[in-house]
Each structure stands twice: as structure tokens, then as C-alpha cells.
Design brief:
This protein is of the alpha/beta class. Helices cover 53% and strands 12% of the residues. It has eight helices and seven strands. β6, α6 and β7 form a beta-alpha-beta unit.
Length: 256
Amino acid sequence: MVTKRSWSTRLWRYYLRSAERTIKVLRIINITFVLGSTLIIILLISLFTPLFSRSVVYLLQHLPLPAMTGAATSSPPTAYVVLGGGLTNDADNEIILNAYSLNRVRTLATAYHDLPLPIVLSGAEAPWLGQWLNEHGIDGLISENASMNTCENARFTAKRIPLHHIYLVTDSYHMARARRQFALSNINSTPIDAPLPVPRDWTQPAQNLSHSRRAVYEVAAYLRDVLRPQPDCRSADEVSTEQLLTPRGRVNKAPE
């Protein structure tokens, strides 16, 4: 009888301990679920506010650059380099700068009037960027017309003209990836951020979402460049100097 009571007592205690452990595990799972769900909801809500995109930009701005050597680490900026942001068509189906490229060249013009330095236009958009600058009284431009992506922007600019430190003009999301590519070509850069076509606005969820999408894209592109560099980035040796100098497309010249 004593033995039976002893075994039943032990089984009962074991059951209680197991039940307590199960309750603790369930509490941890419940707390984790609540916290995780709350974070996901906050994240989703932040996509429609300026909070998410500003946080991403802050993170991107504080990423370290690849190591550079020589004059890249000691010389001041000696030129502006503006990266094309794309082209579009107007109502007459003529090729023009899109809003991204237009904001970048406007930002460049403002900086140039404050501090005149040589200007390098990089990308297939170079002829149209140059046309806009010429129309606004800025000439003596250096064009690199061959690059098709950010990696080629850096490599072909370095081949086009010897540079050690530049003022780099692009938008704040693209800036970290662009600065990294130029650093890989041993060109240091001081950023000049151009605005995106639509501003952040707490009262405009759709505009904030467009910023959030751009932020997510740039984070993914940056990680791709680090972990698996894009195969379509040609080396400088694959492109001739003549190709760098040859404009692509047709630019409408203003009447003289």
C-alpha cells in the first residue's frame, strides 16, 4: 500500500512538473507570437510612413566603404560625377530625361554654381544630361556614355578620366551602392543627394510606399553586389575609349 501511494505521488509530482514546463513553453510561444505579430504590424504600417525609408537611408549611410589607397584617402574632391537615372518619352514620343535624372542634374547644377568644378556625366543618359546643362549655361562637360549599370558607372568613369576623390550626385537610396562601387575602383566620394520625384509626407501613404519600395530594392541590390556581384558588369578593358566617347541615342538640339 505504501509502495502504491509512493508511486502515485511520484507520478503526480512528475505530472505537475510537466504541466508547469508546458505552461512556461506555451507562455514563451505566446509572448513570442504577440511580439512578432506586433513587430510585423508595426513594420507594415511603417511602410506607409516616412519612418521605414528614413531608417533604411540612415542604415545605408553608415555602411563601411571598401578600403582605398593613395590619393583617394587624402585628396579633396576635384570633380562632380552625376549618375543617370533613366530616360522616358514626352508627349511627342521624343526621348527626354525622366524625373530621377532630372532631379540629379538639377542638384548638380546647384552645387556647380556654388563651387565650379569639372563635371563628368556617366551613363547612357549622358547626352541628355549634357543637353540640359548646356541649356542652363554649363558647358565643358566630360561624358562617359557606355555604362549600363552602377558597377559600370564606376569602372568606366575611372577609365574615362583619372580621379581620386569626387562629389557624387545620385539619390540617397542609390548613394551607398554607388559609393561602394566607386571605392572598389579606388575613387573616394563625397555624397550630394538628389531628391526623389515624390517627397516623403506623413499625410501621403502612397508616396511613402514608393519610398519604401525603393529602399527595399536598394537593400537587396546592395546585398547582391556584396554576396554575388552582378555578372553583366563589364570590365574597363572590354570597352574602348571610343565607346566611352560615343553618345548613344538622339538628343533634340535646341534651336540656335
